[in-house]
Amino acid sequence: xxxxxxxxxxxxxxxxxxxxxxxxxxxxxxxxxxxxxxxxxxxxxxxxxxxxxxxxxxxxxxxxxxxxxxxxxxxxxxxxxxxxxxxxxxxxxxxxxxxxxxxxxxxxxxxxxxxxxxxxxxxxxxxxxxxxxxxxxxxxxxxxxxxxxxxxxxxxxxxxxxxxxxxxxxxxxxxxxxxxxxxxxxxxxxxxxxxxxxxxxxxxxxxxxxxxxxxxxxxxxxxxxxxxxxxxxxxxxxxxxxxxxxxxxxxxxxxxxxxxxxxxxxxxxxxxxxxxxxxxxxxxxxxxxxxxxxxxxxxxxxxxxxxxxxxxxxxxxxxxxxxxxxxxxxxxxxxxxxxxxxxxxxxxxxxxxxxxxxxxxxxxxxxxxxxxxxxxxxxxxxxxxxxxxxxxxxxxxxxxxxxxxxxxxxxxxxxxxxxxxxxxxxxxxxxxxxxxxxxxxxxxxxxxxxxxxxxxxxxxxxxxxxxxxxxxxxxxxxxxxxxxxxxxxxxxxxxxxxxxxxxxxxxxxxxxxxxxxxxxxxxxxxxxxxxx
Length: 532
Known about the structure:
A hairpin with a 4-residue loop joins strand 1 (120-122) and strand 2. This protein has 532 residues and is an alpha+beta fold. The protein folds into two domains: 2-113, no CATH class; 141-164 and 231-531, Porin, CATH 2.40.160. The chain has helices spanning 2-16, 21-26, 30-33, 43-73, 84-89, 95-113, 222-225; strands at 120-122, 127-130, 136-152, 160-174, 178-185, 195-206, 209-217, 251-261, 266-273, 288-295, 308-320, 348-361, 364-377, 393-408, 442-456, 459-461, 473-475, 478-492, 497-510, 519-531. The protein has a 16-stranded antiparallel beta barrel. The protein has a two-stranded antiparallel sheet with strand order 16-17.
């Protein structure tokens, strides 16, 4: 007699519940009704099922209470809307009947709770594809930097449009301990074709110990460590020519270990690289070695005034090979106006030293960095102009520094290495985590001062003796110096679209070419950045 009782109870439930499952199915579109049974339900359908199960369960609980009350008076449960003869003949539902029905409802509710996993969509910052178990994620990423440059000064190059970067690739993870990225440069296809920029995996068994391998940025400079889309100026500082692998966008094949200690208060990097740039083999048996340490003493303190302060430094050693036509650092300005210092043939060790600081507090960001590099010229032989045999010349020294400050006028917080979360974007959508409506976007003012010096010490060899075995030569001292003052405004239309306006004053203090007097050049740059 239990099955008739259960059937009667279900009929009662459906007659009292307008949102019952049968009714819900009748409201589906034709496309939904023709959906194969094996096709996973949508998120909306699962939510609808959960609501209906909850209503069904509540109705049954009310019926149980009514049955208990009526059993006290008449000893029978009667369906008020059923015909009298049907009600009279219906058997009384027992507690066991209701328990069986409750179990069936619990099974249905569990199936509704087991919603199909989301395997594609938008995570607030990137599109993504994900495996059903969530262990594999793939996100297409890319960005475009375009600019127009106005030049003013004696001998300045023509004004021009330029596509500085057009990069596209994918990034993601295998589980929670392995990240990966592949990024390609497509802007310089006329000269070098599509070039691999980043191709690496990052294994993270613990926060304190991680291993990264592939091709990526050499972890030497704070400025280079800032993502290309997060640099606040259109170009990095003029000091960047001293960083490792500057001719290869600061990237090289290699491997390093790194980690975060004391909840990120101390960070370290140590690795070895080819040291010759993008997808390039080493030319010596000695790899490029780099070590970097960053300390944020008050990162985990409650003091908001000191929380954003950090200092650090790095060292780098590599070796050049004169027979491979390797040269000292380039003296070209970042805006390509002039070359303040010539390049020299080098052979032997290359040593670099770097120190940096950072201070972030609300909308304010202050950063600075000093770098010095020594390029040795050992046993140059006939490679050196003048034919001085195997005499070693004094090394080439480059040193420079920059200091910069930025301030978000619209109240956003200055991030450490990211785009500010725009509170009121001009165009949608909102930044991740922000709910502000349309507005003027985020406005940021910025200022930077940088200087760079190159020194080639004097060397005299006038008598062909042991110290000058072949041809007499005189190498006069060369010390050239240039400055750059940069100021500008950034307008973040939203989290993904940025307009930059920079104005540079390039000061050629000590020109490297005889007959050219010190002078100033003026450069106006406008850039647009789009990323996804």
